[in-house]
Amino acid sequence: MKRTLLAIAALAASTMASAVVVTIDDFNSPNVGPLSAALGATTAFSDAVRSGTITTLAGPADGNGATVTIGSGTFPVGLLEVANASGRSSEVTLNWSIAAGLLPADALSPSFFMQVVQSDGNPTNLAFTLNGNPLANFAIAPNTANQGLSFGLSPAQIVSLAGGGTLGLKLTGASGWDLTADQFGFSYDVRPSTPVPEPTSLALVGLALAAAGAASRRKS
């Protein structure tokens, strides 16, 4: 009986999918900023990992604006940090170019993730897009700390992203909002390399298990 159960366990283990984790941006490098935009103005940035903009939408006309910082200039280091002084609000966009094949077309259960490290006392919003089309939207409550965000993809979105494309993120919030985030990426499962047993084989194992159980009861 025990041998049969061990065989069943080994069979199940051989058919389980394995997970792959892909980091798109760990926000460590290249560094960005502190980058600011004056009231009503937009400042753009671009490097080998991501591109983006910061636009100061409202606030005092004193020459200062909202700021965005990525990398070693944040505390702790290696974060995406957006800061708006009292009375100011901004819109920050980030874009990542995804190479074809980075997400396989046959990926199982792909799921994106990001960590909100900290937000201040103002509500904020994160909106993710794929090639300009909505993917997921998150409303972050005031004073949020260490909240993980995740969202999946539809079959059509998987096919679209498998061919390469642009992932986008737009961050907005109430006047004075601040937010830091970390580690944007995705994970997916891959089919096992071990061939999945045919239904006939599984049926034979089931019969063996039943026979072993009957034999055990007779001995009792």
Report on this structure:
This protein is an alpha+beta fold. It has two domains: 1-16 and 204-220, no CATH class; 18-191, Sandwich (Jelly Rolls). It contains three helices and 13 strands. The strands form two sheets. Strands 1, 2, 5, 6, 8, 11 and 13 form a seven-stranded antiparallel β-sheet that branches.
In short:
This protein is an alpha+beta fold and 220 residues long. It has helices at residues 2-14, 155-162, 199-219, and strands spanning 18-25, 32-37, 42-46, 51-58, 66-71, 79-83, 89-98, 108-119, 124-130, 133-140, 145-152, 165-173, 179-190.
The DSSP helix count reads 3
Number of domains: 2
CATH superfamily of the largest domain: Galactose-binding domain-like
Helix content: 10-25%
Q: Which structural class fits the helix and strand makeup?
A: alpha+beta
How many strands, what sense, and barrel or not for the largest sheet? Answer: 7 strands, antiparallel
Percent strand equals over 45%
Query: What is the H/E order?
Result: HEEEEEEEEEEEHEEH
Question: Based on the structure given, which CATH architecture of the largest domain is correct?
Answer: Sandwich
Q: pLDDT under 50 segments (min length 5)?
A: 2-15, 215-220
Shape: elongated
CATH class of the largest domain: Mainly Beta
Q: What is the mean pLDDT?
A: 82
Radius of gyration: 25 Å
Number of β-strand runs: 13
Distance between the termini: 13 Å
